[in-house]
Amino acid sequence: MNVQYHPAVEQDVAEALQRYDEVSPVLGDEFKKELRHFIKLAVANPGRFHPTKSRFRRANLRRFPYHFLYNEIPDGIRITLVRHHKRHPDYGSERD
User: Fold this and answer.
1) pLDDT at 96 over 80
2) How far apart are CA 39 and CA 2, in angstroms?
3) 59, 42 contact by CB (below 8 A)
4) What are the extents of the domains in the chain?
């Protein structure tokens, strides 16, 4: 299985890491670890997380108030957005 990323996802993750690294470098590492874990879950079973009103599925992180949106592609998933729960639901909706 393959994971593809929208080009803006790198910036999404960098912003989250900056926020957590300012509090504690350990917290930033834990955020990355949890994000990777949930991405692995989504790759292993793309239908595992609930669908949104659009064509995406939403995977909520357990410990951090973040989620990512993804869709299934023929050989894996494509992550379109990593977003804080408090961000407006339309944030990133123009991404495909």
Assistant:
1) no
2) 11
3) yes
4) 2-84
Please give the CATH number for the structural domain made up of 2-84.
Answer: 3.30.2310.20
Residue 1 has pLDDT above 90, yes or no: no
Report the C-alpha gap between 17 and 12 in whole angstroms.
Answer: 9
Q: How far apart are CA 41 and CA 14, in angstroms?
A: 21
DSSP 8-state code for residue 83: E
Please give the Cα distance from 16 to 13 (Å, whole number). 5
CA distance 82 to 67: 6
pTM, full prediction: 0.92
pLDDT tens for each residue of 41-59: 999 999 999 998 888 999 9
3-state secondary structure 20-31: HHHHCHHHHHHH
Q: Which residue has the higher pLDDT, 13 or 91?
A: 13
